[in-house]
Amino acid sequence: MKRKILVRGPALSQTGYGEQTRFALRALRKMEDIFDIYIINTDWGRSNWIWQDSDERRWLDKMISKTATLPKDNPGLDMSLQVTIPNEWERMSPYDIGYTAGVETTKVSQNWIKKANEMQKIVFVSSFAEEIFNKTVYYEEDSKKYIKNNTPTESVNYGVRDIEPEEIEVDFKYDFNFLSVCQWGPRKNLDNLIKWFVEEFKDEEVGLVLKTNLIKNSILDRRATERRLKSVLEEYPDRKCAIHLVHGYLTDGQLQSLYKNSKIKALISTTHGEGFGLPVFEAANHELPVAVPDWSGYCDFLYDRTGKKPKTFFAKIDFELKDVQPQNVWGDVIIKDSKWAYAKEGSFKKVIRNIYKDHGRFKSQAKKLKKHLDKNFYEEKKLLEFCDSVMPPDWVDLKDFDT
After folding, report:
1. Could you tell me if 119 and 96 are in contact, meaning their C-beta atoms sit under 8 angstroms apart?
2. 3-state helix, strand and coil shares in percent for the chain, rounded to the nearest 5
3. How far apart are CA 13 and CA 217, in angstroms?
4. pLDDT for 73
5. Alpha carbon of 147 to those of 90, 100, 108, 130, 182: distances in Å?
6. What totals of helices (H) and strands (E) does the chain contain, helices first?
7. DSSP states of 133-173 as a string?
8. Which pLDDT score, from 0 to 100, does residue 394 have?
9. Residue 241 to residues 143, 238, 248, 288: CA-CA distances in angstroms?
10. DSSP assignment letter at 186
11. What distance separates the 2 farthest-apart alpha carbons in the chain?
12. Which residues of the chain fall short of a pLDDT of 50?
């Protein structure tokens, strides 16, 4: 008998959590003989939705429409998969799973821990996020008890996807360009990346391509992004290096073409932390050298830990773990008294200079990383791992469920 699973998450959103939801649904779709899938599509901030007509989009729409036929008073669910940050998890079924990118800092909120203990299982996108979650402990004075996560956890990384490239036009000024792909927010530390890049290559024929936006992919957002970029660059009026802004929605195929462009030589980031780091993963899959701080979720795949000694396949930027700036504290998401990574300016400049001077060496390293991903992170493997992770150890009888 098929079991009813309700997936609640931003399935149509052009965001990391949107891709996370679609990854989960691709996995479950492979087992439609076991799972009777229903979808509640949620918003994620003010982000845009995916719009292109595809087999996946048509299937998503079909599952969302099917969900509207469920009886509201007694939907008869066997389990739920809730793809979001932990403070939004709730009891919905006999077997509730929280699926999250988790955290990019050294600590999670006490409220997240309490919500986690309402779930039957938690799945993370990286072992980094899982470890941070499980080592966070609070002492509650009123109850004289320690508050920690007691729910079983597991981490499942994304898998490499085989996507056909689609044409994208970018008018590069120079033949050697670095690439940064991120939303322009506090966690990405993009202002420093731009400034440090310009200071290092101010008088040279080198480019920086920024695939970024502030909130959406609208014309208004583009203008706001251009204004912000202009304000950062005003300090360097006579620079020779080039800055290219790529704004707006790119299909998966167009993004692949950007990574594969012969004039894009490396992906760089000064992020404070990542739950997983999809752009880093995608760049690595296209044999691009990667330069990032040696901390957070992407270390799951940038290191090869299958042998006796870990092997590294990326350019490490030195960093310090320091308190999150007060202005960037954000409720239960980025909490006070937590720390995240601060890339060191000198190390960043040295790393990008080395990539420019000795690109062949870093390209060779990137090819080894690609082989590691092909062997250990291929899509079929990760989709099946995800299905295994959400399969209840023993299906729960509905009569035992009390809402």
Report:
1. yes
2. 35, 20, 45
3. 12
4. 85
5. 18, 20, 12, 16, 34
6. 12, 18
7. HHH--EEETTTTEEE---S-EEE----B------------S
8. 74
9. 60, 9, 23, 21
10. G
11. 72
12. 396-403
